[in-house]
Amino acid sequence: MKTSGGPAKILVVKPSSLGDVVHSLPFLSAVKTRYPEAEVHWVIARGLEGLLEGHPMISSLIVINKDEWKSLSKVGRTAGELRRLFRRLRAERYDVCVDLQGLLRSGIITMATGAPLRIGFEEAREGSRFFYNRRIRGGREIHAVDRYLKIAGALGCSIEEVLFPFPPATVKSGDIMKIMASGAYAVIVPGARWDTKVWSAANFGRVAAELPWRSVVIGGRADVQKAEAVVRESGGRAVSLAGKTDLRELVEIMRNAVLVISNDSGPMHIAAGFSVPVVAIFGPTSPERTGPYGKGHIIVKSDEACSPCFRRRCDELKCMKGITVAKVLQKIDNNIGE
Question: Nearest 5°: CA angle at 233, between 227 and 235?
């Protein structure tokens, strides 16, 4: 059913990852600006729902256990979950389903809605393009934000203004509130999803030791040891919150930072969404595609001829090892200052 102004109910299929979901927020803003009366539902991966919970632009979150779907030992549970998911999707009677993920799994979810308009990228992977009845050429050499906005444009939305609408602030921890209220701070992000994207934690610590602000090191539970190494090398200029924040608290830490120094990671994109200056360290990936979006950011990248290679594994890691502490500090001094 459609309202007088357009579709009444829209499903966005963008389960992961953290940075990709952040990149999708301008798409959400454009759609809700064009169709303010429409209900927007969102398919999100378990573990990332905290980023979108309570979002005033989203009427319903559909949380999926996508990581478990790959496990043969859980095939029975997965089959039951998929049956319930598909029944729910059909019952919702969406007018439009948008697949921003572009993989086989997301394509099947898109098809299962039975929506009259099922739209995705022409170059989507794993055959997912065959589940759409409208395909948009996004291109692979442009930033992900601009690529997603191409679909918004195809839906009749204005894409002139790029906004990152994060949900309202939520901080539960008194310790975190105390840190945020006690003066200016930089944020350091020493982790990343790929090992090949990780700059040395010791290097991050040496950078923190030279900054004019204290530093807060963030990350998940898997990053605790890296964060501790940063703190040690900082000579007491950094404090670790790795493994101690939920997603909403992480958002607030980023929102209030004066500077973020990061590998190519999801938290880096949160900072860029708030226009917080980012010093982004790039090796195997392309800042043109997935760098911090917007102006005022600093890219520190390898001069190695093999970069970017987009490899998740590498025995040499020349591209990351070749980036020195001195180079990062010089970039900060030249572009940010105190």
Answer: 110
